Amino acid sequence: MIPDDSIISIPPDLAATLRKAKKIVVLTGSGISAESGVPTFRDAQAGLWAQYRPEELATPQAFLRNPALVWEWYEWRRDLVVKAKPNLGHDYLVIMEKQAPEFVLITQNVDGLHQQAGSQNVIELHGNIHRNKCSREGTIMEISPPAGEIPPRCKNCGAYLRPDVVWFNESLPPYAIQFAWEAAQNCDIFFSIGTSSLVQPAASLPMIAHERGAAVVEINIAETPLSTYATFALTGSAGQILQNLVKRTWQDPLQPVFDPDYNF
Ligand code: NAD
Fold this sequence. Notes:
The protein has about 260 residues and is an alpha/beta fold. The protein is built from 11 helices and 8 strands. Helix 8 (about 115) links the parallel strand 2 (about 100-105) and strand 3 (about 120-125). The structure holds nicotinamide-adenine-dinucleotide.
């Protein structure tokens, strides 16, 4: 059997630290969904949307200025997400959760792919693109067909509906950030996966874990402001690295080390 180089590249200290960890916390960003075909905000936008920057569309000000434009952009993004399937990265986080005594998955993603893969203990910091809410009252609301007007209106008060996501310049759901903060303060190992570590307050979470003495692991295809603080900074695609890391950490001692068909 040909040894897999990327398995060798998982530091043995990291596998040992992960194996011993009682509390594992994982923060994910849009990079983990890139391999499912969901573009990150920093990827070029496609087609009609190429002329806009996401920062100009994903704001309350943009919605006030042009609600139909923002709604239609989200319809386009929803369509991409509906067609997307969880990838190796999502799947191996499900396995990690099953192996861990305590596990919290904090995601900045709004695509629901972690839950679709089977992750259980998920905190959504930035909402979920599949839900809508009233732009005035915040009530979660189904669109009752037929939806003629764009955006559709709230059945109760007549205000426009909007996606239930956190836009730039908006606050995070208080319960979500509090839960995430506590998880970061009390973990043994903290993973920051596929996130640029630029969007606050999520970017502070690995630093909190670091200050409390947890091992911090970054998985990203590029360097970020977190890279220099990370105990382990692994460069590469989230899916491949998570697969290798989980196999390396919890391999059955009776199985050959480099068995790519190892079945958990
Ligand atoms: P970001 O666009 O700022 O950064 C993405 C990061 O992922 C980058 O650092 C990039 O180097 C890395 N990356 C790209 N492909 C990767 C791969 N295959 N493996 C590992 N890393 C990879 O995204 P962000 O940090 O999540 O912050 C932007 C905000 O945009 C988020 O808060 C989120 O709410 C929103 N968003 C969500 C989605 C989604 O739900 N899938 C998609 C786009 C944007």
